[in-house]
Specification:
By secondary structure, the chain is α/β, with parallel strands linked by helices. It is built from 13 helices and 14 strands. 41% of the residues lie in helices and 24% in strands. The strands form two sheets. A nine-stranded mixed beta sheet has the order 6-5-1-9-10-11-12-13-14, sandwiched between helices. Strands 2, 3, 4, 7 and 8 form a five-stranded mixed beta sheet that branches.
């Protein structure tokens, strides 16, 4: 493991050297889309303009539990309305890192929802259905996502065929350096879409192997049978792509349980061992696990773990994982090694939660050179 200061210095130098090349890279991302409302939960209302917010999920849970058999009133304060969904956030972050992004998802149909207007100016954006909606209740120790998902049922291979086109789909995949399919959990027909892509698109791909990124996105509510099918399909993509399976800490535990693995150890060594065991069962190039304070990867060539710039008082947390994913993929596409790619991921996420905006490559290099104190 490289000494952290040395790692950050060498990674910053490589990012600076590769910044022009980043603008030549292409990404095809899909397939979800949400309008996110970032909410604070009121604990005590002091006046019309002043309130104390609930700082922890535990406090929120206590308030809800105390209402059992009675009733209660919960006040939400909308702090920000923004584009949402794992795919749009990842795609938007990648476009800010200079990549040429094509995005396909449910961002409004027949007309694009205004919240995606700025994204559409930076990326090539196509939509086949109306967006979902999420109230993201943010706390200092995490977030609770309350979603309305009816429109996500329209994200089907049939609608992709009729409203986007198989030839255009294959063309965009074939022209991409990175292909990312995220938010399987909330898209009920994603497994059918993957099956069709494996059958109709992948066999006609030509040229070099591309980077393929998959994020199930909190699969707890899906059945073990569905999760196993999704993992099997992801493994099949390894025939055509260098596949990365991205998981946060909670997701790694959920996947481990479905696979019948030991999920009892929650320390760093335990998570590395769990990621190693997942990769043995799901035959992909790389398994990522990114808790809030660090990230780790297990690949065919070895394992790595990198600490991030943890921020105890984040301005925003919704989308932090998607920013990690975008930074990691940037590192991989620029030819950085696994430690440096992990550092790109945690730095991208760390910048985002501090500033509530996506970083540029210059921002990443600067943050690596001027690492924030915890």
């Amino acid at each position: 493991m490289t000494e952290p200061t040395v790692l950050r210095g060498q990674c910053a130098a490589k990012l600076a050297a590769g910044s022009n090349r980043a603008g030549t890279l292409r990404a095809f991302i899909g397939l979800d889309g949400f309008v996110d409302q970032i909410m604070h939960v009121v604990d005590k209302r002091e006046s019309a303009d002043s309130y104390q917010r609930m700082l922890t999920i535990g406090r929120f849970a206590e308030r809800m539990a105390a209402a059992a058999g009675k009733s209660t009133n919960i006040e939400l304060v909308n702090k920000l309305t923004k584009l949402g969904g794992n795919g749009p956030i990842m795609g938007n972050a990648l476009s800010n890192l200079s990549l040429k992004v094509t995005y396909l998802g449910n961002l409004g149909y027949p007309n694009l929802h205004p919240v995606f207007g700025d994204f559409a100016k930076r990326a090539e954006v196509f939509s086949i259905a109306e967006p979902g909606y999420t109230d993201a209740l943010e706390f200092d120790d995490g977030k609770v996502m309350v979603g309305k998902h009816q429109s996500l049922r329209q994200v089907t291979w049939e609608n992709i065929q009729t409203r986007f086109g198989v030839e255009r789909f294959a063309e965009r995949v074939g022209g991409a350096d990175l292909v990312a399919f995220v938010n399987w959990t909330m898209l009920p027909h994603m497994s059918e879409v993957w099956t069709a892509v494996l059958r109709e698109v992948c066999p006609v791909l030509q040229g070099r192997r591309r980077l393929g990124f998959f994020d199930l996105c909190d699969p707890e509510k899906r059945t073990p049978k569905d999760i196993m099918r999704a993992l099997d399909l992801i493994g099949q993509f390894e025939r055509y792509f260098d596949v990365v399976l991205g998981l946060n800490e909670k997701e790694s535990q959920e996947i481990g349980k479905v696979l019948g693995l030991d999920t009892g150890a929650h320390d760093r060594d335990g998570l590395v061992a769990l990621a190693r065991a997942i990769r043995q069962r799901v035959p992909v190039n790389t398994v990522l696990v990114h808790p809030t304070t660090y990230a780790l990867a297990v690949t065919a060539d070895g394992e790595a773990l990198v600490d991030g710039p943890f921020e105890p008082k984040p301005l925003i947390t919704t989308g932090a994982g998607d920013h990690f994913n975008s930074g990691f993929c940037l590192g991989k596409l620029l030819g950085l090694d696994i430690e440096e790619s992990l550092l790109c991921g945690v730095t991208t996420s760390g910048f985002y939660v501090r500033h509530a905006q996506s970083p540029t490559i210059d921002d990443l290099a600067h943050m690596m050179r001027h690492w924030p104190a915890h």
